[in-house]
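Sample pair:
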Amino acid sequence: MRVIIADDSVIVREGLRRLLDVEGHEVVELVEDARAIPAAVAHGQPDAVVLDIRMPPTFTDEGLRAALSLRAAAPDLGVLLLSQHAVPEYATRLLAGGARATGYLLKDRILAPRQLSETLGILAAGGTVVDSDVVAELLAARRRDDPLARLSASERAVLGLMAQGLSDRGIAERLFVSVNTVGTHVGSVFRKLDLPSGATDNRRVLAVLTYLERR
């Protein structure tokens, strides 16, 4: 496999090249500045590009932006982003336009030649590889952003029955509680989901839509 390595650290570049050499891959270009990546790809015609997220000139997200540009220009090109830390925002941006032939790994995951080689093989076949720590951070972020997480167990039960079309009386009968108790839970659901004040029927619809979207 023909590979381009893009990282501002000469130690990392040479280390990755040696890992790939051991597995029989051909490193066709070594790049230290994100601005040089497009020309390197055009010249080297690689099967995959391995690049750091933070690269010159500003050491912010140049590598990520380069990866997105490469994906747009060559969807079948394997693109593997490496990072020191698991950053959910980077993973979300990287995968937002599609995950084909795309990977995001922490640098300490690729110390073994076979692991790096197998990852590039997956990308070359159109697959996706995302570091387990990154996945964990993404799930944690989603839980933090989930409005249903604000609800108590009783409120979630009431909302679930609302989604089935039950009235307050029907919910009360199903849960063996009073209608007033259901009304209290419904009011709490509206408040915790930050639903705008207005007709109760409209708020019930909005609450149910939120519930269905998050299931």
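The longest helix spans residues 200-214.
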